[in-house]
Design goal:
Its EC number is 3.4.24.-. Keywords: Hydrolase. It is an enzyme of class 3 (hydrolase). This is SprT-like protein. The chain starts with a helix and ends with a strand. The chain has three helices and six strands. A hairpin with a 5-residue loop joins strand 4 and strand 5. The chain has two domains: 90 residues, Zincin-like, CATH 3.30.2010.10; 37 residues. It is of the alpha+beta class. The radius of gyration is 22 Å and the shape is elongated. The structure holds zinc ion (2 copies). One zinc ion binds next to loops.
């Protein structure tokens, strides 16, 4: 994952590319964000981003959303979701209206190779007669079932 510094650099690049305006503040990861992609803080003009969305293809759309808040606020236009300025600029740059859904991976079954000890966390039950350890071809055994 990017460091806060690298994230800020990326936000700066996106800002120049799409808005033709510089992003002059800081961007950082915020682990506590759950389903929101990011947040804009009018007080000190920094942006928070959800690290769970960092790997998503749509992450740039999340950055564009927060930058739309940022640039409108700085140019004293309607920067809130319901404002016409916000809707217009967001559509113009192609930012996301809503944060993409992040599904937390739910591991329900834990398998382990009886030969080499390699773990296989899985969401679904697997047929241990058919599937073998990918490393050593050993037999898999269920360790725990979390349903
Ligand atoms: Zn927003
Ligand atoms: Zn094995």
């Amino acid at each position: 994952m990017l460091t806060n510094q690298e994230l800020t650099k990326k936000v700066r690049e996106i800002s120049l590319n799409y808005f033709k305006r510089p992003f002059e503040h800081e961007a950082k990861w915020n682990q506590r964000l759950r389903t929101t992609g990011g947040r804009f803080f009018p007080k000190d003009l920094h942006l928070d981003f959800n690290p769970k969305m960092a790997e998503l293809e749509d992450f740039e759309g999340v950055v564009l959303h927060e930058l739309t808040h940022y640039h409108l606020y700085r140019t004293k236009r309607g920067y809130k979701h319901q404002d016409a300025d916000f809707k217009r600029l967001l559509a113009q740059v192609g930012g996301l209206r809503y944060a993409p859904a992040v599904e937390e991976r739910k591991v329900k079954y834990d398998y382990v190779c009886q030969n080499c000890g390699q773990n296989y966390p899985r969401q679904r039950k697997i047929d241990t007669k058919k599937y073998r350890c990918g490393k050593c071809r050993g037999q898999l055994k269920i360790k725990t079932s979390r349903i």
